[in-house]
Amino acid sequence: MRGEYQQLVDEISAALGAPATLEDRDFGLIAFGAHGGDDDLEMMMDPVRTRSILQRRSTAAVRAWFEAFGIARAQAPLRIPPDPAAGVFKGRICLPVRHRGVVHGYVWLLDDGHLAGLDLKMPFADPRLAQAMESAARIGALLAAEARAGAELGELLRDLLTARPAGRETARGALREALGSAADGPLAVVAVAPWRAAADGDGDDQAGPDATGSALAAQSGVAAMCAVPGVLPGGSAALAALVRLRATSSPAPAQAAADRLLRSPRAGRADAAAGTAAAGIGTPRRGLAELPDAWAEGLAAARAAVADRKLGPVAQWAAIGPYRVLTGLPAEHAADEAVLPLLEPAHTELARTAEVYLDCAGQASRTAAALGVHRQTLYYRLGRVEQLTGLDLDDGEDRLLLHMTLKAARLRSRP
Question: Which InterPro entries match (predicted)?
């Protein structure tokens, strides 16, 4: 199907005599058309298009700039003026790619002034523009069909990972039929947490939450993916993605998929700064039977990577250490009363000192170097920790209790 998109984009480029780029509604690149022999020059003269093609995605700032023109709600072509301050050196014409009223993407046409004569208020009056819009409509139908197929696979994956045993068995059989021989091969489950549905602030009230999931999945090398609501503390959703591997010992495709998924504007909370999302990869399995366990591992690894940035932004289950235990504990059982005074906001620096000290296996010189403090300052802080908690840092069990409680506090403070 990727070839069909390329053919239609080339048709639009030829009809209007302008370089065309097709992106999904999340500004992920699907296809782009060359324009004669000057396309390299055109790209150099417009860094936004260059980055889109080379990085396969536009930045969040570029997306916000273009969306400010109302492209997500536009029913007809829009003219976007150049803005060198935003890195947009050439004007554009945006053809919204819609199907049955739902926007599935955008076709962008670079305009150096030669398209100034197009009457966008009466688009069907110009046969060139009418042909381009007809091609855009065909693209919309293809993306809609992909979205439906992707949503069906996503529903099966969600049922396999989260439903009761009877529902899981039904979903497993249907997913095996849909995936064919790949269902019995090496697979990995990637979790991205937190994850926002497409309808959360995407500018299109008619779009369903999985409207572009298939396009994103195809770009990320994912066999199926779905949002799983309410699986994080506080009720936030996470993304589950099923990735085909070459071998269970080679998780590189899962790592690459996780990296790409984290660049989606849906990764993270809508009200949080960028970088608050992380991804986890469960132990690879062969076949579908153990995927619920792989999902639990991937989700735990993602939560750990959000809580402890040393592990992320992509963490594998085998590499998250004590978080393998802590993520399985109910939140109400993960805090010991003796340590609670240390967790108060007024003692944040003392808590950090204690955690680094325990991470360094109680070695004062390493701890002082890591914190950038004098050893006497370190000893004073550790004494204050003992006073607040009543714990003896020379006692192994007290140290274990403090260490695990501080790590658990990280998990509780994140979504």
Answer: CdaR-like_regulators, PucR_C-HTH_dom, PucR_C-HTH_sf
88 forms beta bridges with: 83
For residue 291, is it within any domain?
A: yes
What are the two backbone dihedrals, phi and then psi, of residue 122, each rounded to the nearest 5 degrees? Answer: -130, 70
CA angle 42, 48, 54 (to 5 degrees): 85
Q: Per-residue pLDDT tens for 44-71? A: 456 566 656 655 666 777 788 889 999 9
Give the per-residue pLDDT at 32: 83
Number of domains within the chain: 3
Distance of alpha carbon 313 from alpha carbon 259, whole angstroms: 8
- What's the mean per-residue pLDDT of the chain? 86
Are 319 and 338 within one domain?
A: no
Domain C-terminal end among 326, 355, 386: 326
For residue 75, give its domain range: 2-144
Q: How many CA atoms lie within 13 A of 342 on its CB side?
A: 30
Cα 63 to the center of its chain, rounded Å:
16
What is the per-residue pLDDT for 28?
82
pLDDT of residue 234: 81
What burial letters (b/e) apply to 320-348, b meaning 16+ CB within 10 Å? beebeebbeeeeeebbeeebebbbeeebe
Q: What is the pTM for the complete model shown?
A: 0.77
Instruction: Output the domain CATH number for residue 305.
Output: 3.30.70
Considering the domain boundaries, does residue 62 fall inside one? yes
Q: What is the pLDDT of residue 360?
A: 96
pLDDT digits (tens, 9 = 90+) for 231-252: 988 888 999 999 999 999 999 9
Q: Which of 83, 113, 144 is the last residue of a domain?
A: 144
Tell the burial category of 196 from Cβ atoms under 10 Å away from its Cβ (0-12, 13-18, 19+).
buried
| Owner of token pair 């984009």 | 9
Partners of 188 in beta bridges? 243
Which residues of the chain register pLDDT less than 50?
37, 39-44, 199-212, 273-274
CA 117, CA 115: separation in Å to the nearest integer? 5
**Whether 318 and 337 share a structural domain:** no
Residue 209 covered by a domain: yes
